[in-house]
Amino acid sequence: MNNRFEEAMQKLKVSGVRMTPQRHAILSYLLDSLAHPTADDIYKALEERFPNMSVATIYNNLKLFVEAGLIRELTYGDDSSRFDGDTTEHYHAICETCGVIVDFHYPKLDHVEESASQETGFKVRGHRMEIYGSCAACTVKLH
């Protein structure tokens, strides 16, 4: 079992959240996934193992995990929310053709937050940056 999963289990235990087999499967899937899945993607991946689990159950558990700070919910435009098991500081490149989301790391832009705080008087709690374009596979198809 990976360290992130063990930390997540401990956080849930402290919060008084019981770890059911379904929650275990959803959290494991998310922490192992690099694909930023939707609730429906997770449902499709787990429905064979948990035929009685609904998309609503998955979504409710995802909300619980977001509230516990174990995962991030990514909302881009009108598409379904996607979920990210990586809660470290990182950014996303999003393909406008196929919708794939790829993580990339860049030194945290502290000076942007500081500047925004000074100019607006806001107490800044964070920021989000997305890069839009075509992934390598879609770029090949387009040319």
UniProtKB/TrEMBL annotation:
InterPro entries the UniProt entry points to: FUR, Fur_C, WH-like_DNA-bd_sf, WH_DNA-bd_sf
This protein's GO CC annotations: cytoplasm
Residues noted as binding Zn(2+) in the record, renumbered to the chain: C95, C98, C135, C138
Main location: cytoplasm
Family annotation (Pfam families): FUR
Keywords, alphabetical: Cytoplasm, DNA-binding, Iron, Manganese, Metal-binding, Repressor, Transcription, Transcription regulation, Zinc
Record bears the keyword Iron: yes
Residues noted as binding Fe cation in the record, renumbered to the chain: H127
Domain of life: Bacteria
UniProt-annotated location(s): Cytoplasm
Cofactor: Zn(2+); Mn(2+); Fe(2+)
Cofactor info, note text: Binds 1 zinc ion per subunit. Binds 1 Mn(2+) or Fe(2+) ion per subunit.
GO biological process terms held by the UniProt record: negative regulation of DNA-templated transcription; regulation of secondary metabolite biosynthetic process
Function: Manganese-dependent repressor that controls a regulon of oxidative stress resistance and iron-storage proteins. May act as a hydrogen peroxide and organic hydroperoxide sensor.
Family note: Belongs to the Fur family.
Protein name, per record: Peptide ABC transporter substrate-binding protein
